[in-house]
Structure formats: C-alpha cells, structure tokens
Amino acid sequence: MISLIFGKTKPINFIIVLTFLFFFYWFVHFQLFDRGYGTGELWHKALILGVLFFSIFLVNFIVKRNKITRNNSFSILFYAMLAVVFPETLLDSNAILCSFFLLLATRRIISMRSSKDTKFKIFDATIWVLVSSLFYDWAILYLILVFAAIFFYQANDIRNWLVPFAGIFTVYMIAKSILILANQKQFLVTHYQFNFSVDVAYFTYWGHSTKLILFAVITFLTGLLAFVKLGKAGFGRVVTMRLIAFSFVIGLLVNILKLSDNVYPVIITFLPAVILMTKYIESIRRARIREILLIASIIIPFAVLLTGMAIQ
C-alpha cells in the first residue's frame, strides 16, 4: 500500500506530507508542548512553517536532480516521520532555518560531481554554510564538508582550495557592513562563542539521549547496508554517498556540541539520514519485506511519540 503511494513521485505525495506536517507542527506547539503565542509570534511561527515546507521540496529536489535515489518519494516520507520522532525540533526556529540553509549548501556540494562551474558551486556552498552558522555557531563545521567535496572531486586544481576563503571573506564583509548599519557591531563576537559543556541531566531524558542514540545506530546500520548494496556502482555515486554519510557525522557532532534543553538541532541530520534509509529500502528486492519495513517506518515514529508523551 505504502509502496503504491510513495513508490512514485506524484503531487499527491507532497500533498499528504505537507498536510500532515501542517497539522503536526501546530499540534507540537499548542498541544504537545502547550505553547502560547501572540499575534506577532504566530506570524513568525507560520513563516518558519513555510520554510519547513520549502525544505521538503529541497530534499526532493536534491535527491532527484542528482539521481541519488530512484523515482520515489520515500525521502520526504522519512523526513516527515523523523519530525514525529523528534517533535521538539519543530519548536526550535533556529534549527529549521539552519537546516534550510544547510540544504542549500548540500545541494551545491553534491552537484560538484558534474565538474561544471565547480568554483561557483564551492563559493555558493561556503556562503550557505556560513549563513546557516548565523543560527547555530557550530554549524560552521560543515565547511569541512565543502573541503571534503573539493578533495573528492577537484583536488588537483589549487584554486578550488582558495575559493572557500573568498566566500568566508565575502560573507564577513557583508555581515560586518550590515551589523555596523544596524548598530550591532559585537554580534559576531558574541554569537561565535563555540561553547561546549556536558550536561549530565541532558542524557537522562528520553527525548534527548535515547532517541538520538537509537537514531544514530539505525541510520549507521542502514547506511552500512546501503554501501554494501552499492557494490560496483560508479565512482561518482560512491563519493556522493560518502559525502552524505560524512554530513550525517558532522550533524551528530553539532548536536553533541549544542547540548541544551532549549536547542534541538537534530533536524540538520535529517537529509543524510533519509537518503541512507531510502537507499537501503531501494536495495530490498522482495516487495513484501520492503512493505513491512515501510509500515514499520510509520508505526515506530508514532510509537516513539506516544511513549514520549506518556513519560512526560
């Protein structure tokens, strides 16, 4: 049943996912976490929801344009289900905005595989990573992914290694000019603190440590199986999957470095996670087993959600 619906790329799939996210987003805010907002705050939250919707289209665009997955909509389905597993991330506007700009950066990084306009893609990816770091300072670690892509795709051209520094200088000058005009000269100094302190209490809450650990283990296992199934796939596809796996590792590291009760950056790991999960599902030849796993991928997130609600 699920394979029949999401096994193809059809408009109805987006309608289902976006409609579900619309109601679930407001359920999380008003029912699950009992938040109250004024009129101005409601408009802000609605804008963030719009960014989340656009992120869904970006995820689909990335996997289809670069032919990372086959012609299906499993990636956006898994993306929505991960939001169910981690509903707290929908409360964090910075997380959704940071994730959105990292999606834009990832789109340019993966497209470097074509070897066309490589320097422009490196420059764009660097800028988007730096913009994402304005919401989470540790997101700047994704610059490592930019350099990793250069190493894999265009390492011989020394000018490619210099392009990210040009991007950093450009963003710094633009940001500095805007901050001077806005009379916020100290923003960069106060924002990029890169603080890290281990909070033991953070790891005792189901909504944080247990789910994150299980999520990481499941993603790594499906990713490993997906890599095994790749077998003799072309070098370009293997490199792309390596970059995606590396992106997931960086995302987990950012989550650890941003440990806080009011910060939920796990959404930045959703793209690489759904790609690895989709690749694994696609590798299963038996339709019955694939269908069982797809059903489980829907039931389990809601079971996790209900368990979390019962524990609270």
TrEMBL record:
| The keyword Membrane is annotated on this UniProt entry | yes
Has keyword Transmembrane? yes
Q: Which domain of life is it from?
A: Bacteria
Q: Which UniProt keywords apply?
A: Membrane, Transmembrane, Transmembrane helix
Q: Where are the transmembrane segments?
A: 12-30, 42-63, 75-105, 125-153, 160-182, 202-227, 239-257, 263-281, 293-311
Q: Could you tell me what this protein is called?
A: EpsG family protein
